[in-house]
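User: Fold this, then the next.

Assistant: Folding the first:
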Amino acid sequence: MMRFTFLLFLLPLLAFKADQDLTHITQAISSGSAITLGEYFDDNVEIALLNEEDVYDKSQAVHKLESFFEQNQPKGFNQVHEGSSKGNSSKYCIGNLKTNNEDFRVYMFIDITANQYKIQELRIE
C-alpha cells in the first residue's frame, strides 16, 4: 500500500517536470539560446533551416542554430499546437517564431525516454 501511495505522489511530479522541459525548450527558442536548446538535442538531430536540411551531431546542430539566430534575432515564440504519441513516448510542438527579419514556422519532434526530452528533429521554415 505504501508503494501505491508513493506512486500517487510521484506521477504528478514527473508530469510537471516533463511540462517544464517543453517550457524550457520553447523559452530557449524564444530567446535565441542555441546552447540551452542544445541541452535537449539527441546525440544526432535532424535540423532543417529554411532550404537547408541535414542530420548533425549536437555540437554541429548548436553551431547551425547560433548562426541562424545571429542572422534572425528572435523577438518571441508562440506555441500553436502540441501533441503526444499514444504511449507518451514522444511529443511534437508547432509554433511561430518572430524575428527581426521575418516570421518562421517551427516544428519539433521530441523523444521522451526515462522522462528526458531529446529533440530529434527541429524545422524552421
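Now the next one, as you asked:
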Amino acid sequence: MNAQMESGDGLSINPRYTNLLGFLGCAGLLAFAYYLQYGQGLDPCPLCIIQRVAFLALGLVFLAAALHNPKGFGRHVYTALLVLTAVAGIALAIRHLWLQSLPPDRVPACGPDLAFMLRNFPLQETINTVLRGSGSCANVDWRFLGLTIPGWALVWFLVLGGGGVVTNEWLGRRTRQSQT
C-alpha cells in the first residue's frame, strides 16, 4: 500500500489525489465564474474579482501540495497555507454577504471599477476601496437554491478549506502510519 491507505470499505485514498481534487474544484469554480461573466453577462463586482483571486490562490496551493506530495512537516506547511487562503476567502465572502444584506439606504455609493482603480490609484488605496465595497457589490444578480454568489463562495471556501485540512493532516497522518 505504498503512499495509499485502505479505508474500511476498500477504497484507496491518496492525499496527492485529494489535493488534486481540491485544485480541480477551484478550477471548476473559476470556470463557472467566467461562464457567468462571459456566457450570462454578469459583470463581477470588485469583491467578486478578489474572491476569484482567493480561489486561484487556494487552487495553486492544492496543486503545489499535489505535485509535492509532502510528508511530515511539509504537510503542516501546506495545511497552514490552505487554511490562510480559505480564511481570507471566507472573510471576503462574509463581507460581500454583509453588503448584500444592507437596506438600500445604507448601501455604499458605487465607485469606479477595479481596472480603473488599479490603473489610477495606489495599490493600498485600491485594496482599501475594494474591501470597503461599493454599491455594485450589494447587487444580487444571481441565486441558486436561495444562495447568492458570495453565499456559494462562502460554502466552497469552507468545504475546500476543511477538505484541505482533512487531506493534509488526517489522511496524510493515516497514510504515513499505514506505511510503518
